[in-house]
Each structure stands twice: as structure tokens, then as C-alpha cells.
Amino acid sequence: MFKDEHGNDVSLRDVALPNRPIILVPAYLGCKHMCNSVIDGVCDAAKQLIKENGYVAGVDYTIIVFSFDPKEKPPQALAYQRRWVTEYGRKEGEAGWRFLVGTQESIDTVCN
Q1: Are 26 and 17 in contact (CB under 8 A)?
Q2: Tens-digit pLDDT profile for residues 52-105
Q3: Starting from the edge strand earliest in sequence, which strands make up the sheet with 2-3, in order?
């Protein structure tokens, strides 16, 4: 179990679209270097999927970014979601880009 951007308890299954692919991205939300570059690359790829195939996050697939720092909290996840949904530039982005935080046990379960 994780907490979503609004502090709700959720599983990965809860935030993914049913029967659709997910892009799972581990990242430190407070990172200003490599993690931002990775998420920026995911955003660029998501924009390219729209151009090339018409695939839209929140309709055709879900991007789930989860923090692998158990000290990060839902307000950080919400700030990140707002930033990247704005950058993505699609109304479906809020449903398609999820940012989660969790306990060390939850993080370890997904990473392992």
C-alpha cells in the first residue's frame, strides 16, 4: 500500500487503469538532478506517444511515479503531480499521472 497525492491509501492496482499498461517510475520526489531528468524523459515520451500513436496517459495507459524515499509525503507527491501534469498538457493527465509515497516495506516490495 502507498499513499496517493491526496493522502489516500492506495495500491498500484487501485491507481492503474484496468486492463491497460502502466509505466512504473521509481524516483526521489525531492531530487533536482537525475530523477527530474528521468521524469522529464517520461513526459517527453508520453507526448511523443500522443503524436505518433494517439496514446494518452489517463486513457490508454497510466504513469505511476513512486518515491523510493519513505520520508517523502503526499504534499510532495501532489506538487510533483501538478508540475508534470501541467508539463504534459492534457486534461486526462491528472488521471494518467499518479505520484505515490509509501513506507520502506511498500517501497522494498515493489523494488524487489
Answers
A1: no
A2: 999 999 999 999 999 999 999 999 999 999 999 999 998 888 889 999 999 999
A3: 9-10, 2-3, 97-102, 62-67, 22-27
> Which stretches does DSSP call E strand in 1-112?
2-3, 9-10, 22-27, 62-67, 97-102
Q: Cα angle at 77 between 4 and 69, to 5 degrees?
A: 95
Strands 97-102 and 2-3: antiparallel
Which pLDDT tens digit goes with each residue over 27-49?
998 887 888 889 999 999 999 99
> How far is it, in rounded angstroms, from Cα 57 to Cα 17?
10
Is-contact 21 61, C-beta < 8 A?
A: yes
**2-3/9-10 β-pairing:** antiparallel
What angle do the packed helices 74-88 and 34-53 form, to 10 degrees?
40
pTM for this model (two decimals): 0.92
CB 57, CB 88: distance < 8 Å: yes
